[in-house]
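Deliverable D2.4 — example input (structure tokens):
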């Protein structure tokens, strides 16, 4: 189909999960409740908290028909923005579950988890990674640049509600940059309250694109032909200290990109 844009992409290499098949429930333009300064999609085109159907469920069904599941370790729902903004995400998860026994993972910024209906749609997932890049509203505004009305309190409350209801594995993903790494102690009480199964420590390894392109959904960089700005990362010493503090103070398993 000439010019057709698929909701399925990859598999791409994931430092956490191996070969990850991407599912994009947003698709046409980057759409998110955040506009993170490090986002692999570049500047978000449509910043919103509107939950609606962005891609018809039937399109996802058609796109899944051509998947070769033999080369897939995990299915990750992410793509062109915040996937929980898709009102049909529960239907999409059901479609994936009908076709494979591979684990299904969601990467979310957790801004919509305060909505019980959103949490219900996620109940069949095997693994959810919730972004928590900021321990305070000040850092949230500087790093994640959220839509109006979003606060750290709202985000953490939503993750806590998910933790109570969700039977699968729950991770917190923290993107460390020079902007926030010195505040590492401030995450400790939040993590103790949430009680995740694991914490994923990350730092930007892909450039910040000069403009959004569909290829931004997966691994990109110079080889992908995407122009962008290299981002400042934390040092190995900073990463090891952050891991030590969070591990010792919370008792939660730590997975770090610096040990990849």
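Example output (designed residues):
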């Amino acid at each position: 189909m000439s010019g057709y844009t698929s909701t399925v992409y990859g598999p791409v290499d994931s430092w956490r999960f191996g070969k990850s098949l991407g599912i994009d429930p947003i698709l046409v333009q980057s759409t998110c409740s955040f506009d993170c300064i490090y986002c692999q999609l570049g500047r978000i085109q449509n910043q919103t908290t509107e939950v609606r159907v962005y891609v018809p469920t039937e399109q996802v069904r058609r796109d899944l028909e051509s998947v070769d599941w033999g080369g897939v370790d995990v299915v990750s729902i992410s793509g062109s923005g915040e996937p929980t903004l898709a009102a049909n995400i529960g239907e999409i998860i059901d479609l994936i579950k009908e076709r494979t026994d591979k684990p299904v993972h969601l990467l979310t910024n957790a801004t919509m988890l305060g909505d019980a209906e959103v949490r219900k749609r996620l109940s069949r997932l095997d693994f959810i990674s919730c972004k928590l890049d900021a321990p305070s509203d000040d850092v949230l505004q500087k790093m994640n640049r959220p839509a109006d009305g979003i606060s750290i309190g709202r985000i953490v409350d939503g993750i806590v509600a998910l933790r109570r209801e969700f039977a699968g594995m729950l991770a917190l993903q923290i993107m460390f940059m020079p902007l926030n790494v010195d505040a590492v102690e401030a995450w400790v009480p939040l993590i103790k309250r949430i009680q995740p199964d694991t914490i994923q420590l990350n730092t930007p390894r892909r450039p910040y694109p000069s403009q959004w392109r569909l290829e931004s959904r997966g691994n990109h960089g110079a080889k992908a032909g995407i122009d962008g700005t290299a981002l400042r990362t934390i040092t190995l010493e900073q990463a090891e200290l952050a891991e030590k503090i969070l591990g010792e103070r919370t008792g939660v398993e730590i997975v770090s990109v610096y040990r990849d």
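Confidence is low (pLDDT under 50) at residues 220-224.
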